[in-house]
Amino acid sequence: MAPKPFIGYALLTFSLSFVKIFAVDYYVTNDVADTPGGIRFTNEIGIPYTKEKMGTSNDFIWSTIFQQNDPSDQKPLDSVELYITTFVDEGAIAMSWGNNKINFSSVFISEYTGDDLKYIYTGILYHEMTHAFQWDGEGRAPIGLLEGVAEYTKLKANYPQPGFAKPGEGDRWDQGYECTARFLEYCDEVSAGFVANLNKKMRFDYNVDYFEDLTGKPVDQLWNDYKAKYVH
Ligand SMILES: *[C@@H]1O[C@H](CO)[C@@H](O)[C@H](O)[C@H]1NC(C)=O
Ligand SMILES: [Zn+2]
Fold first, then answer.
1. Sequence-ordered strand ranges (E) for 51-188
2. Which of 88-92, 165-169, 176-180 has the lowest mean pLDDT?
3. Which positions carry the signal peptide feature in this UniProt record (predicted)?
4. Helix or strand (DSSP H, E) at 59
5. Rounded to two decimals, what is the model's pTM?
6. φ and ψ at 96, to 5 degrees?
7. Which pLDDT tens digit goes with each residue over 91-121?
8. Ligand 1 pocket, CB under 6 A
9. With contact defined as beta carbons under 8 Å apart, do 151 and 181 qualify?
C-alpha cells in the first residue's frame, strides 16, 4: 500500500507545474509616480489592486466572455504589462499596444472629477485586457467590432460607466464601443455564446458572414431586428 500516496504526490506535483506553465504574469509600472496623476493612482488605485484585477479580468475573459477553457484556444501570452504614464495623444484615456501592453493616462487619473475613480478605472482595465486576449482575424476584423467586444466585456463584468449606451442605441452595427457592445448582447440572445463563438472564428481570419454562420441571419438583418426590438 505504501507506493500509492507516492504516486498521488507525483501526480499532484505534475499537475501543479502544468498549471504554472500557462499562468500569465502581470507587471504594473507607475512611470510618473511624482506627478499629480501618479500620486492619485498610488493613493486611490495602486499597483496591488491593478495586478489583482488584471488576474480577475483575465480569468473572466477566458472563462465567461470567450469560453476558452482549453488553453490551446487562448491567445498565448506570458505576460501583460501596464504602465501609468502621460499620453502624447491628448484626451485618450488608455491604449493597448505591442500585443501585450497597456498604457493608462495619468492625466485622466489626475483630472477625473466623477464619483468613483476606482470603478471607472476597473472598467477600462477590463476593456484593455480584452484587447490583449481577443482574436482580431489577424488584423482583418473591423476596429469597431473589436472595440465593441472590449466594451461588451466591461458591461458583462458589471463595470459600465454612468451613461453607458442603453439596449437599442446606435446608428450602425460596427459603430464601435458601447453601441456595438449592446448589439453583441442582442446577438447573444439570438444565439447563445455568440461573442465567444465569433471570437473563436476570428482567430485566423475575418468575414462579415460569420454573423450569418452563427445566427442564420446576415448582419444587416440582425441590426434591423435589434433596432426593431427596442425602438418603437
Ligand atoms: C507607453 O508607456 C511606456 C512607459 O512610459 C512608453 O515607454 C511607451 O512608449 C508608451 N507606448 C506608447 C505606444 O505610447
Ligand atoms: Zn479599445
1. 79-85, 94-97, 101-105
2. 88-92
3. 1-23
4. helix 47-60
5. 0.90
6. -105, 145
7. 789 999 999 999 999 999 999 999 899 999 9
8. 31, 83, 85, 97, 103
9. yes
